[in-house]
């Protein structure tokens, strides 16, 4: 599939506008609060999605992998050692935990960990074979800018992977997610985040998506570049 945005263009990207918009400052503040307890509070519930995404990365061709929103580095030990992992995150506190994990566990396949805005990185075009974002799409201020940046960074023939919570279309969960939405800034993520908040209709026609066990609250999405 062709890139929707050609490399090195400045074409406008439609923005997702949730009930309570996030900004970089609120995201940094939220994850400063979460950093010391993130693994305990979220590590278990997110482990299935992380393992599923990393398992797919390990099966895909290519060695240069960008993990967007690497956080405390929970996924880093699970990549095959023939992959070269670069991680980025906006939170210095979360990255400190990831660096500690990398040193403690001797993760020699982790090439670098950078404090960086996922919507505007410093990497050159076509720097990676795979870009993977785990539980990030509903965190960033402008999800479609995130996707456009991931497209810019992934080589033709590569893969973009995302695992995320996407809002239900109806039913009790829809009501709960909408009720939680005003707390987005405090939580640091959008409970009401819908799949079309990041993917265009063309993308939605081409993505491969699978529900992640055990209860299917998360979805793993693959988009070929």
UniProtKB/TrEMBL annotation:
GO biological process terms held by the UniProt record: methylation
Q: Which Pfam families match?
A: Methyltransf_11
Q: Which UniProt keywords apply?
A: Methyltransferase, Transferase
Task: Write down the species.
Answer: Rhodopila globiformis
Q: Which superkingdom does the taxonomy of this entry point to?
A: Bacteria
Please report the name of this protein according to its UniProt entry.
SAM-dependent methyltransferase
Transferase: is it a keyword of this entry? Answer: yes
Q: Which PANTHER family match?
A: METHYLTRANSFERASE, METHYLTRANSFERASE DOMAIN-CONTAINING PROTEIN
């Amino acid at each position: 599939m062709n890139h929707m945005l050609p490399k090195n263009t400045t074409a406008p990207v439609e923005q997702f506008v949730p009930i309570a918009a996030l900004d970089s400052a609120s995201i940094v503040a939220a994850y400063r609060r979460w950093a010391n307890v993130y693994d305990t509070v979220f590590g278990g519930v997110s482990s299935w999605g992380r393992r599923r995404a990393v398992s797919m990365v390990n099966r895909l061709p290519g060695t240069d992998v960008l993990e967007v929103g690497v956080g405390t580095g929970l996924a880093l030990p699970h990549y095959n050692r023939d992959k070269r992992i670069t991680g980025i995150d906006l939170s210095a506190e979360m990255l400190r935990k990831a660096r500690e994990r990398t040193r403690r566990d001797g993760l020699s396949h982790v090439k670098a960990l950078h404090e960086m805005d996922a919507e505007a990185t410093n990497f050159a075009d076509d720097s990676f074979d795979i870009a993977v974002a785990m539980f990030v799409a509903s965190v960033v201020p402008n999800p479609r800018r995130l996707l456009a940046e991931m497209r810019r960074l992934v080589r033709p023939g590569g893969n973009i992977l995302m695992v995320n919570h996407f809002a239900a279309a109806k039913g009790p969960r829809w009501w709960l997610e909408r009720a939680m939405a005003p707390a987005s800034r405090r939580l640091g993520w959008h409970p009401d985040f819908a799949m079309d908040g990041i993917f265009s209709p063309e993308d939605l026609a081409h993505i491969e998506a699978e529900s992640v066990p055990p209860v299917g609250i998360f979805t793993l999405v693959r988009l070929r570049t």
